Amino acid sequence: MVNVSVRLRHNRYRLDREAHILVNSEECLNCPHRACLTACPAQCYLPHAEDGVAFNYEACLECGTCLLICDQGALIWRYPRGGCGVSFRFS
Questions:
Q1: Number of domains in the chain
Q2: Residue 49 lies in a domain
Q3: Once rounded to an integer, what is the mean pLDDT over residues 32-50?
Q4: Which tops the pLDDT comparison, 59 or 9?
Q5: Cα–Cα distance for residue pair 21/24, rounded to 1 Å
Q6: Domain containing 42: what range?
Q7: How would you class 80 by CB atoms within 10 Å of its CB: exposed for 0-12, middle for 13-18, buried for 19 or more?
Q8: Which pTM was predicted?
Q9: Where are the alpha helices (DSSP H) in 1-91?
Q10: CA end-to-end span of the chain, whole Å?
Q11: How do 21-23 and 75-77 pair as beta strands?
Q12: Residue 9 or 24, more confident
């Protein structure tokens, strides 16, 4: 079985100046389960003691899993500007 990091290295990322997902830290602090930490296939969410979770948009696959799994209303999700974001499976 090939691990996720090996599969992800074939993707290309063109970063936007701004993150396409914004995390409301106040809502995250009240989250009882922090499902985004385990649901994100690219592991873009990391636990952060002061702010609940930190989001690393540079590796985001734009799959929308976090938006579906977050039941606290802590995320504002939009697509990156045209030409920015992830392109899949280049090698």
A1: 1
A2: yes
A3: 89
A4: 59
A5: 10
A6: 19-80
A7: buried
A8: 0.77
A9: 4-8, 25-29, 36-39, 65-69
A10: 19
A11: antiparallel
A12: 24
Who has greater pLDDT, 49 or 68?
68
Q: What is the CATH number of the domain that holds 61?
A: 3.30.70.20
State whether residue 72 is helix, strand or coil. coil
Residue 1 in tokens: 């079985």
Give the integer Cα–Cα distance in Å for 33 and 79. Answer: 26
Q: Is residue 58 assigned to a domain?
A: yes
Domain-embedded: residue 66: yes
Residue-wise pLDDT tens digits, 53-81: 888 988 888 899 999 999 999 999 888 88
Residue 4 above 80 pLDDT? no
In our burial notation (b when 16+ CB lie closer than 10 A, e otherwise), range 7-19 reads ebeeeebeebeeb
Q: Residue 33, class by beta-carbon neighbours within 10 Å (0-12 exposed, 13-18 middle, 19+ buried)? A: exposed
- Residue 41 counted as domain residue: yes
